[in-house]
Amino acid sequence: xxxxxxxxPKTWNWHGHKITYQQAGxxxxxxxxxxxxxxxxxxWRKNLPVLGESCRCYAIDLIGFGGSAKPQPGIVDYTxxxxxxxxxxxxxxxxxxxxxxxxxxxxCIVVMQTAVDYPELALxxxxxxxxxxxxxxxxxxxxxxxxxxx
Length: 150
Prior knowledge:
With 150 residues, this protein is of the alpha/beta class. It has helices spanning 47-51, 80-95, 106-117, 137-140, and strands spanning 10-14, 17-24, 30-34, 56-60, 99-104, 122-128.
């Protein structure tokens, strides 16, 4: 089999912000790939064509990363809940329904957050090199001293 060729990235409008994504394959089960910290859909450039041979495969740039919009904090809250909502809306509006969600690094937390908040959209999850890098440290500093030990 010959791998599917990758074309120019596509754009989706989410809450007035440009979101970049890539797609390969037009039939079969949907799979959505979510990159890690500091990465983009291009992280999955070698996986997309191969997966696209047997499924509808998407790789999305989370808001704030890659080719997607990078609004100032406060305009968008850069949290796992925000990215989970973005991924859920992407599944509804672009994918057209539930998908297998695959994450790398912090993308693992994003797909898990999506599955917790929107279980009807997650057919299953895969976590590759999951990072729990304590990205909520800003919130932790507001806790009483005894909650920061354990």
